[in-house]
C-alpha cells in the first residue's frame, strides 16, 4: 500500500508541476485555458475559476492543460439545428443557448444555416419570427450555455496560434522548465534536511553488524590509508576497497589526533537492477559524513540539478546510439509499471530517499519532454521554431501527419515497454 501511495504522490507532484508551468505561461501570454486536469479518465472533482475548469480525474497517471486553439475548438452547431441567441447592441452573439435550462430574456430563436467558430467566428441563421437570414458575428466575450453552465467561446486573440513565436515557445518550454525548478527546490530541501555528502574519507555512520562495526570503527573516524595506500577522498577510498577484493584490509585511522590500526574483511552486497541484472560490490558498512554549512544551499541545488541533467542526457545519447549499433534492448527503458516497482522499493528506504528519487525523476521528465519527438513538448517546440526561422508556419496537413506519426510511435513504444516491464516483474 505504501508503494501505491508513494507512486500516486510522486507522479501527482511531477505532473501537476509540469502542467502548472504550461498553465502559468499560457495565461501570461493571454492564451485561454478551458481546462487544467490532473489525472485521466472520469472527473472526481472540478472547480471553475477565471474561465478555467480545474479537475482531478480518476486515474492518477498523466494530466493536461487544454489550451484554446483552432484544432481544439469544437463546434456544437449543425445546419438545421434550432437554438436561441442572446445578442448585444452591435448584434453580436454574446450567448449561444443550447437548451431551455436558462433564465435569459430578450433572446432570438433561430435555425442554423452554417457556422464557423474557428476562423471567421460567425453564425449564419434564419430568425424564426420573420424568416430573415442573418449572419451574426461572435462577440469577443461570448459563451455557450448548456445545463445552466457557461463555457466561454475562445476568441481568436486568445488562441495559441495567435500569439508570437516567443510566447508560444515559452508556453511549451515552461512544462519541462518547471520540472527542472522542482528538482532544484527538492535538492535545496535535502540540503537543509541532511546537508551534502562530504568528499572527505570520514565515517558519517556505521552499519549495524557490519565489518566496520565489528572492527571497532566509530562515527567521525578518518580513514588515512588502506593496505598502505594513502586515501585522498571518499571516491578514492571506495575504489581502493573494490580493487583489494574480499581479502582482509588494514585501515589506518585518525580520531581526535589519535591514530589507530584496524583490520576487517569487506562483505559482498548484491543489488538487483530494474532490468533484473544483479550487480555486486564490496562494502565495509560505513556511510559518508554530511556537510551543512560549507556550501550555499542554492549553489548545491543548481549543482545537483546540472549534474543529474548531464547524466540523463548522456544516458539518452547512449540509448539512441544503441539503436544504431544493434545493442538496444527494451530492458534499457522503464514504463509506468517499471517506475512503480522502483518507486515502491525507494519508498521502503524512507522519505529522504523518496525526495531524492522524485528530484531525479523530475529532471528525467523535463529532459524526456524536450526530446524532438512529435506529440511531446520538444516536437511542438520544433514546429514553433520552424515558423520563427522561416517566417511562416509549417504546412498544416504536414504538421498534423507528423503529429499523428509521433503519437503512434509513442503508443507503440509505451505498449512494448509496459509489456516488457510486466514480464520482468510479474511473469
TrEMBL record:
The gene is rseP. It is a single-pass membrane protein; Multi-pass membrane protein. It comes from the Bacteria. The chain crosses the membrane at residues 6-25, 169-193, 306-324, 400-419. It comes from Corticicoccus populi. Keywords: Hydrolase, Membrane, Metal-binding, Metalloprotease, Protease, Transmembrane, Transmembrane helix, Zinc. The keyword Transmembrane helix applies. Its main location: membrane. Belongs to the peptidase M50B family. The keyword Transmembrane applies. SMART domains: PDZ. This is Zinc metalloprotease.
